[in-house]
Amino acid sequence: MHKLLLLSYNEKGRQAYLKHVEAANLPELEIADSASAEVDLVFGSPALIVEVLPNLPALKWVQATWAGVEPLLDPTLRRDYILTNARGVFGGLMSEYVFGYLLLHERKILQRLEAQKNSQWEPSLTGTLHGKTIGLLGVGSIGTHLAETAKHFGMIVRGYTRNSETSPHVDRYYHGENLLAFANGLDFLVSVLPNTPETTKIIDARLIAALPTQAIFINAGRGSALDETALLNALNNDKLAGAVLDVFEQEPLPPEHPLWHAKNLFITSHTAAPSFPEDISRVFIDNYLNYVNNKPLNYQVNFDLGY
Amino acid sequence: MHKLLLLSYNEKGRQAYLKHVEAANLPELEIADSASAEVDLVFGSPALIVEVLPNLPALKWVQATWAGVEPLLDPTLRRDYILTNARGVFGGLMSEYVFGYLLLHERKILQRLEAQKNSQWEPSLTGTLHGKTIGLLGVGSIGTHLAETAKHFGMIVRGYTRNSETSPHVDRYYHGENLLAFANGLDFLVSVLPNTPETTKIIDARLIAALPTQAIFINAGRGSALDETALLNALNNDKLAGAVLDVFEQEPLPPEHPLWHAKNLFITSHTAAPSFPEDISRVFIDNYLNYVNNKPLNYQVNFDLGY
């Protein structure tokens, strides 16, 4: 019999996960009331799991409800268990987010809305995604979905990765020192990079300067990947046509932060790809069946790489 | 030798088409300076062609630069020539338009923009297209592209057509008297219907009442398909969550028209899918090669059906 600890930020969230897990009638599974010596499995939010790690001597496997598992990667914490994160469920949501803002820009939606307020017929030609070039910083399962959406809209797709070249929807891959060549000539730069030592402030003044001034930058990965001051300077000095940020070095973004009122910047509050309990529970359920059948688990995190 | 008359609303447009046609080095083709007895082919805007029809005794084939060819369908006009319209080039642009506004709605882009103006962190859950149901009024080449985009975003797709069932991306087709069953339970209703006698005010008070009150309606086909008064009443009485109109009974929409300030209505000025000379010229060039090689022409319009 396995004993599962389910951790969520509030009882409503916990009940939502519990409902989906119980409905699956998983074999040999008992739900634990609290962190205890018998708990061998945990399914929950990384920051909450950190708090109970010392109290789980029998721990074998943790399924995170998020894609980002930074709290559990702290090198002072134990790593004597299998850590899997949530993947394969955020691609569609991220595509909706990124392409919602790209289309807002190309279709001049806000400009046309202003004309409407003045009862003004505004037949100026629309822009189009077709034929434009998008650069993806990070091409894992989310980046692959973005690449597929981009190809659906007739775009040219570049990908920058450590070394993987797995997506068939990327026209050209770049790695390592070719970051500035990757940025050169892009219409849109989109980061979905995780927070790792190698991605810290990878989007810096040099990279931003390598983008055409009419380019748009979107950060839907982690705030740590962006030098926010460099972006602020570029936007306020018209070195970049616009940006969309969903993630920040500090979240919630403090009310006095200058980013709130930067020129041509859209801010969202880490809402690009929420974890819907139904989707994330399916990841756990599939992985639990792998676990009890001694099959390899999906989405294992490498503690050293950080993803 | 064939003699082609090229008609555009202004010299700049005409030069753009001319450039692409000339670059193709088409065999046995001469460009005419004006409507004359020798002209056997016309490539241009339908309303302009109507004016020169009586002066073209040798006319054999007209390639319209638009999808909508209403002016040429007037039953008092001659029909002794082959009429082809522009198809296959608007699907991508229409998808960008429709999904730009659907994502604006689901992702709460305007609401989040308001929060940003107040430097306010706004983490409310996003909506998603995934799992929602879209109904397409008209599933020709444009509707097929919309259906494919909808499936890419994980939506359920219904199609309402006269009788065709050709798109593999439509989950369920409806015809004839099943219009209200088609509308029942839709999250989004999108019309890309052409202007024909059968589509006149097909979107009326009864159809709108059959939609759920949280539904969104988009008209990117022709204004004649919509009873504008019925839509206005539904919006202003919260019987419908919102609408997006690109086409109107009268264009330009007059400044005093009540639609400009209807509740939850977005107005664009017939800009959803412009005719880009490069795309439309390719349609003409391909068809010209069919013509001189005695092959059937693409996109022939049936004068009686109106499309």
What does this protein structure show overall?
Two copies of one chain form a homodimer. Chain A is of the alpha/beta class and 307 residues long. Chain A folds into two domains: 105 residues, Rossmann fold (3-Layer(aba) Sandwich), CATH 3.40.50; 177 residues, 3-Layer(aba) Sandwich (Rossmann fold). Helix content of chain A is 32%, strand content 16%. The first copy, chain A, contains ten helices and twelve strands. In chain A, the strands form two sheets. Chain A has a seven-stranded parallel beta sheet. Chain A has a five-stranded parallel beta sheet with strand order 2-1-3-4-5, sandwiched between helices. In chain A, strand 10, helix 9 and strand 11 form a beta-alpha-beta unit. The longest helix of chain A is centred in the N-terminal third of the chain and has 16 residues. The first copy, chain A, is elongated and about 65 Å long. The two termini of chain A are 30 Å apart. At the A-B interface, helix 4, helix 5 and helix 6 of A face helix 4, helix 5 and helix 6 of B.
